[in-house]
Design a protein that fits this description.
Number of strands: 2
Strand content: 5-15%
Order of helices and strands: HHEE
Number of domains: 1
Distance between the termini: 33 Å
């Protein structure tokens, strides 16, 4: 019997990477500060304390992980 298994990223993507409405962004804006990142900058890394909630206002963010060999494996953009 064959069973199709969805990946966590497929089933939980809206929870992990929600698309916020303008009103949601305005509501959380007062709790943070605007920062700019350059291409290639890491926003968070496994094993390091993060800055907390990150809301991306413009641009794209590539979410990656490292495999057992240490190579980067894309999760989502």
């Amino acid at each position: 019997m064959s069973e199709t298994t969805s990946s966590l990223i497929d089933t939980r993507s809206p929870q992990m990477f929600p698309k916020l409405e303008t009103s949601d962004i305005d509501r959380v804006r007062r709790f943070g500060k605007l920062r700019r990142f350059k291409q290639g900058d890491a926003l968070a890394e496994v094993g390091n304390v993060t800055r907390g909630l990150i809301v991306n206002l413009t641009g794209r963010v590539a979410v990656m992980r490292r495999d057992a060999s240490g190579d980067r494996v894309p999760i989502t953009t």
